[in-house]
Amino acid sequence: MRTLIKNGTVIDGTGKPSFKADLLIEEGFIVSLDKSINAKADRITDAGGCIVCPGFMDMHAHSDLEVLRDPSMRHKIAQGITFDLSGNCGVGVFPRRAGDRPAFADILGHYPNWTWTDFPSYTSLIHSAMNIGFLQSHGMLRMRAIEGNPNRRATSKEVERMCVLLDRSLSEGCLGLSSGLYYAPNMYADEDEILALLRVVKKHNALFCVHHRCEGDFILSSVDEVINYAFKTDVKLEISHLKAIGTKNQKYIDPVLEKIHNARDRGLDIAFDQYPYEYGSTSLYSLLPPSMLQKSHEDLVKSLQKALTDPSYKKELTDCIEHPDGWDSVIELCGFDNISIAVLETNMQYRGLTLTRCAEKMGTDCYDALFTLLIEEKGSALMFDITQSTENLIKIMKDPLMCFGTDALYTGNVAHPRSSSAAVHILDEFCKQKKILSYEEMINRMTGRVAQRTGLTDRGILAEGKKADIVVFDPVELKDNSSTTEPYAEPSGIKEVFVNGQNAFESLSGEVARASQGYKNP
Length: 522
Fold this sequence. Notes:
Elements: E1 2-10, E2 19-26, E3 29-34, E4 43-46, E5 51-54, E6 56-58, H1 66-69, H2 74-77, E7 81-86, H3 105-108, H4 119-123, E8 131-134, E9 136-137, H5 138-145, H6 156-172, E10 176-180, H7 191-203, E11 207-211, H8 219-233, E12 236-239, H9 253-265, E13 270-274, E14 279-283, H10 290-293, H11 297-309, H12 311-322, H13 330-334, E15 339-344, H14 355-362, H15 366-376, E16 381-386, H16 390-398, E17 402-404, H17 418-433, H18 439-446, H19 448-454, E18 470-473, E19 494-499, E20 502-503, H20 504-507
Parallel strand pairs: 1-4, 1-5, 6-7, 7-8, 9-10, 10-11, 11-12, 12-13, 13-17
Antiparallel strand pairs: 1-2, 2-3, 5-18, 14-16, 15-16, 18-19, 19-20
């Protein structure tokens, strides 16, 4: 099938100025890009008044189970995203033993049939309308390789087992390794384990993406930690969703950026990604200290129940939360008023309320309210937390090392708006309205730069011979319609979305186009 897109303003993803041109697509590729193309085509799209650009690429995604639940990937396609990199933050779904319980439901949500055991058997189940690449998650390596509770230091034999599993996943097509040193079980990895894994990453010239240990009070030493690991192993380092958490810590963004650029000047291949919101979303359980997260779920519930009945134990626990040692306590950094419920499957009546308001409704204090909600929760539990200033959000966004990411989570009917509108939000809010960056600059951060970081040479820019991942949008109509109360309200202004030359946007209202089976490292 041949598709001709005529009369558009082309922004090619390189950062260069826009230009008027036509594009001809055939067999999934851009076969011609010229000022005027007069060729026969099965379909002609008039893009007059519209911007034609590469499909947006999401550097930081968590679509691991969503792509199985909804192969149309509606919430990504509707905002123009044609590729995402999933398996971030050390959170993933493979490898695993047959019969192991599903993992990371609080972040990834639920899926009924965990029949796969490794990367190939998992990707064989994917029939998606968009391209998806995967990182091997550190968390799943630990769960697969460590005997018993993975929330502990690994033995040398267990580290060796992890390295064999990682080598296999990278050989099979994973684009790199992800870790979340903020999350269990990754936080219990020592330096020897991390360096051993990174030597495998280096062997494959793959990417190390990391949610580093602390984004709050200890952010400077935390960034130093991951930079040090990267220098010792010479891996490509991607710092996940760069930010500083808490009002008092906004002063650290300048020195953090300086550390990153100094490392790059010294020869390290380092960059970072960012989602375009002042507030984030993650597991409600992450409000608890690492000593609590080390426990099995059953023991964790018992400890929280004890805190409700034993004042001295409760004081010990709350003192740990209010005076954290080497970890990010969002309660201490942001306060109960700035933490609200995004998803609570068991207690849906509290969705959208701050923890302060939850406590008022429950007739108790904020800690008892939190502990009670976690005790009673049988499914997913996510929160919103206001973490950073607009000034620093923009400062990070303008940095030349920034790549676009959504950090989208799909755990239920309520989500962070970034899950359905981050790509349109960043163009609407920061290009169209605030004019922080030009469309050319921002689209480069959302396309060509992500392709370069992930090593995908066949897409990310509009040029002859490249894969036809293309978005056509009307800059006048472009609008983010989402909110915390209507997170899945679809944006306006996206006219066409092509994935590998197929019109994936049309498939949202009909049969899902099978455009990809998961993007694998060529």
